[in-house]
Amino acid sequence: xxxxxxxxxxxxxxxxxxxxxxxxxKPARNWSAEALPLGNGRLGCMVFGGVARERIQFNDxxxxxxxxxxxxxxxxxxxxxxxxxxxxDLGRAPGxxxxxxxxxxPRGGDGYERALSLAEAEHRVTFRKDGVTHTRTAFAxxxxxxxxxxxxxxxxxxVSGVIKLQGAHGETTKAExxxxxxxGTLKNGLAYEARAQVVAKGGAVEPDGSALQLRxxxxxxxxxxxxxxxVPDYGKKYQGPPPGERxxxxxxxxxxxxxxxxxxxHLADHQKLFGRVAVAWGETAPxxxxxxxxxxxxxxxxxxxxYRAGGADPELEALVFQMGRYLLVSCSRRPxxxxxxxxxxxxxxxxxxxxxxxxNINVQMNYWLAEPANLADCHLxxxxxxxxxxxxxxxxxxADKEFRTASGRTRGWxxxxxxxxxxxxxxxxxxxxxxxxxxxxxxxYAFGGDKEYLKTVxxxxxxxxxxxxxxxxxxxxxxxxxVPKAWSPEHGPDEDGVSYxxxxxxxxxxxxxxxxxxxxxxKAYRDQVAAMRDKLVTPKIGKWGQLQExxxxxxxxxxxxxxxxxLFAVYPGRQISVARTPxxxxxxxxxLAARGEAGDSRRSWTWPWRxxxxxxxxxxxxxxxxxxxxxxxxxxxxLFANHPPFQMDGNFGITxxxxxxxxxxxxxxxxxxxxxxxxxxxxxxxxxxxxxxxxVDIAWQDGKLVEATVRSRLGSPCKVRYGGKTADLKIxxxxxxxxxxxxxxx
Length: 746
Ligand code: FUC
Fold this sequence. Notes:
Elements: H1 2-17, E1 21-24, H2 31-34, E2 36-39, E3 43-47, E4 53-60, E5 84-90, E6 112-117, E7 122-129, E8 132-140, E9 147-153, E10 159-167, E11 174-176, E12 179-185, E13 191-201, E14 204-208, E15 211-217, E16 219-228, H3 244-255, H4 259-274, E17 278-280, H5 286-289, H6 300-308, H7 314-331, E18 357-358, H8 362-366, H9 376-399, E19 416-419, E20 425-429, H10 433-448, H11 451-472, E21 474-475, E22 481-482, E23 486-488, E24 491-495, H12 499-519, H13 523-535, H14 582-595, H15 606-616, H16 620-633, H17 649-662, E25 663-664, E26 670-672, E27 683-690, E28 694-701, E29 704-712, E30 718-722, E31 725-729, E32 736-740
Parallel strand pairs: 26-30
Antiparallel strand pairs: 1-6, 2-3, 3-4, 4-5, 5-10, 6-7, 7-8, 8-9, 9-16, 10-15, 11-12, 12-13, 13-16, 14-15, 17-27, 18-19, 19-20, 21-22, 23-24, 25-26, 27-28, 28-29, 29-32, 30-31
Helix pairs in contact: 6-16, 7-17, 9-10, 10-11, 10-12, 11-12, 12-13, 15-16, 15-17, 16-17
The structure holds alpha-L-fucopyranose.
The site of alpha-L-fucopyranose has 10 residues, from loops.
């Protein structure tokens, strides 16, 4: 009892000391490494927090060049575009000499702070200039569909300066009253427009050429709206009406609300999603948290540098965990497009890898956290995109001789490695990416249990993809089935039966069988698919005890290639597990250890995948080391994962992987603390999700479970495992059960 009370006090302390905030003592100079992201799912921006000049670079997730791209050539597929910048040049404070707005930015010190609060999804910069303290607060509102920026000062009439709006494609900006706007049309016919509306209290706002002059205002509110004519509808060639009227409506509606009202609506919306999960796995030592500000400690970039040098900082790790959730909420909301390689943040018209949807690991990793980290709603834009692209994907598949069958018919669809948002595919075929997308469709059902969704959205696509594979699998002389001529990304030859492809098709067939059973549908086809699944060539153990990447035993134990494609069956798949297939699990661990942690193995997304793999293999300290590896080698000062350059998959992936360390449910049971590293002896997590419609809170101390609470949304059977013990909990839908470290009811 004393022990429990102690644990509770300790954990409560850890949670309250931990502010979910990134903060810095100087403005950002570098876009990808230092500026901070805001987003409402569709519309986002990167805020620099400048003093002499504030830069707010913004994006809308549908501003894409490219089209259906019939050649499949990656070069002609199009790219996600930069939209533009809102710039604020600071003017002279009354009676402060000739400050011109061109002065150097501060180099740190106690007159400046910029911070991103993850819990509030709000950026705030405060600085002192000419004896005046200025505060600029910004957020991207999902309910009101605009970016909101308020600029206040502690002296009346001190808000002066120039506001500019600049498009990234050479547009001409016009000032109309207190609004700036520009519009354009890309070569593919996509129309777009951005508008910034300024409302001042006191003083004056006056057009000045293509800019707005603020003179002696007490306070200024800037609302930014931007959008395109994109609609997710192939029948309309993805083109809807130009966005101008819609943007005017958004600004008019938002402009009628007070700042406090806009902020309250934004906060309620954000916290409804973000606030579902809390985590703490230790208190950071006060010396590391730092001074001079005890509330926020040392700036985040310095904390990261100290961590890189080998220091312990569990609060920083927890901040990174929550950053993944924050970013998904900020760039993946309905209605809107899913997270691309850079989420939705992009300052270039020719970004790395087109800032596209990469289907051989990256877009999937973007969504690994959605279900376990309690953001299932944020998974939906991925399904919406898949549905809106299926028709052109089918056409591209039918048109390619690669997929011609003896019967002359081509059923289903396949993907190349990359795709855009208007039916276009690029680069070489990644044949089993179709089946990997189906895993996401299935997992949403497995976690949430929505039968209507399964029946109307997931099942038809899963069935069609099974039909594709029914037509394309090749029988070996002994009757076993292989995926013909495919690639283990991005590694080795194109050939039959590579483990990656075999495992992903196995996963599709296995999940299809479960889906058909859940719906009581298509009994005969279900049995046929089950039979095909059981004939697939399965991963083999090779000559150095490794899990073979190819049917041919050619794996090189010195190979440090970044992809761990052949380990799909361990995670995110479930064909291999320590409990059911111990020999294969051992071989997977041999392969994973051999890949090492240096060279090409240091990428944004390698650490998270390997972290989740080690967690599934029950090797807790190895999993913990992957968290440390990401923060040490592939994380930028603004906590963006770095490939390089920055790539959002690592942020999303590490959150998902850490979930696997605390909670697993892929085999039906709820397993508590399956991979708890020694470095995290005491902690508490709440709100993580398990398959079957469960939400779980777990507390542990000295490496041992102290208590857990399981809430059931659906009332489905619930078996909990911890260590060697199991307990069957009977929890009605909407009910909860609390258990202690021995899994006995509390
Ligand atoms: C895959 C990876 C690369 C990179 C690119 C965007 O092709 O192999 O490392 O992440 O996607």
